[in-house]
Amino acid sequence: MEAWDVVVIGSGVAALRAAIAASDGNATVTILSSQAISSSSDSTINCGFSIPMSEPNHSMFTSDTIRVGSELCEADVLTSTSSTAVEHLAELERWGLNLRREGNGLPHLGKLPGQSAPRTASTGDSTVEEMLLILQEQTMKRRIPHRGDVEILDIVLTEGGSRGLIAMDIQSGELFAIQSKAIILADSGFEGAWNGDGVGMGTSAGLALQCALPLVDLEFTSMHPLTVSEIGLHISLDVLGAGAIVTGNDGTALSTEEGPDSLARAIVAAGGATLDLTPISTTDRPWFEKTFSSLLTRSGIDGSVELIPIMPMVTATIGGIPISSNGQVINQDWSTQILGLFAAGDSACSGLHGASINSGDRILSSITSGAIAGATAADYAATSKFSKSNIISMALSQAHHAHDETLSSAGEGGISPGIILQSLSTTMQTHMGSERNAKGLESAAAAIQELSSVKINISDRNPVMNTEMVALIRTQRLLSVASAAVSSAIARKESRGSHIRTDFPDLDSKQTHHTLVHQDGRTESLSLRN
């Protein structure tokens, strides 16, 4: 049985940064991801890196984040994140990140939706791609093995904490076990429940529910306002910092003061809007050449002279696995932690974003939460021992049994995963969209329960490269997370941030708490740490 000090699950910015931090903490580290090594679900991050560098102190950054997050941000996480932002950006620059710069040599900072001062550093429209390349290079320098096309089937937990995991090699169909001292869950959120495109399938959140661990704040999502929905193209918010304008159907510019989700809701309410890229200067345009090229080749729109029709779609989920300020997964309250289990990035809910993500804070959170989780996991591993190999072996045996049963029943009828995902997507867009109400949420809960009871069909009995089996596993997991999200939305009887209840439109109740949801749909309140 393989044994590693720290196993990182994911392939995006948070996962790679966590692996680097754990390795620098002298832990033996490996990375497992369900995607190919060269791909990442972080493609939905469409903004640069927010950094309070041009401001006299962090108070404006803090007040903006709390305002956009509708007062549900955790003060300790917000303070630690803002205080280390400059350090993290400087580190990325040392590793080779080529930022846009001013004439004085300092990074160019764009003023984006929700920011009261210019605060977003970027490489134009390729910030995430360049970060991923740089971080991958750093993992290679540290000789951290990265294994793609691996589907995690189960996390092995005992009363003493996490002991290891069970996984499937997608290419060979082999099931295997890994013993570890620490596990970091750092993959995507569950935005695929709305989009049905296979991106953001809620792997980590589903694994947590499978282990009877609660999730938190699943009712909060984030829509990207600058989306060309017909071709699924998400245009970077950084174009707004370069002069681009969002215009409503009546020809007036839409406000960006209250943040990206507020802008997205205004566009949805108006039935759509247009994005004007023509104000971007010839000096700035090279930084956004990929955007202009994609628009022309994929939709035939020449962004240099034509207006671009946009309609927002969900590209991020805010809620997920609750973690403490050091990245450790918590259970019932802030004092109950799961030893050896950590989370970071989109799969985690640190409390930084509150009820809505501000511009630039998503990539900032991925970097900082990944670094914290990796360093803490390495410290934990240094004082821990491998144990409970017999329980891991039992879990592997049980996984083999379930796997064989599924293969043996292949071809016996049912509905394909694709149809299930399409139905789930329609349900979530209809009842868990920009506006919600009790009747619609109850309808969504019933629809998801019905989908969960349907037999999912696979026709292939060969375990090798059985993509149908993979789709079945991911679809079942996503259904469980989507069901929990609807339960969480039903429990929050107020409008707050990105969660708009038309039957409870006001903020008068001031429910300043997080919503904890369990595997069986039970919900309870978790108070703010501050």
Describe the 3D structure.
- The protein is an alpha/beta fold.
- The chain has three domains: 215 residues, FAD/NAD(P)-binding domain, CATH 3.50.50.60; 86 residues, Flavocytochrome C3, Chain A, domain 1; 137 residues, Fumarate reductase/succinate dehydrogenase flavoprotein-like, C-terminal domain (Methane Monooxygenase Hydroxylase, Chain G, domain 1).
- The protein is 36% helix and 18% strand.
- The strands form seven sheets. Strands 1, 2, 5, 6, 7, 8, 18 and 19 form an eight-stranded mixed sheet that branches.
- Strand 11 and strand 12 form a beta hairpin.
- Helix 3 crosses helix 10 and helix 12 runs antiparallel to helix 13.
- The longest helix is centred in the last third of the chain and has 25 residues.
- The two termini are 43 Å apart.
- The mean pLDDT is 94.
CATH topology of the largest domain, by name, is: FAD/NAD(P)-binding domain
Second rung of CATH, namely the architecture of the largest domain: 3-Layer(bba) Sandwich
Backbone CA Rg? 22 Å
- SS-based structural class? alpha/beta
Number of helices: 14
Query: Which CATH class of the largest domain?
Result: Alpha Beta
Key features of this structure:
single chain, 530 residues, alpha/beta, FAD/NAD(P)-binding domain, Flavocytochrome C3, Chain A, domain 1, Methane Monooxygenase Hydroxylase, Chain G, domain 1, 3 domains, eight-stranded mixed sheet, three-stranded antiparallel sheet
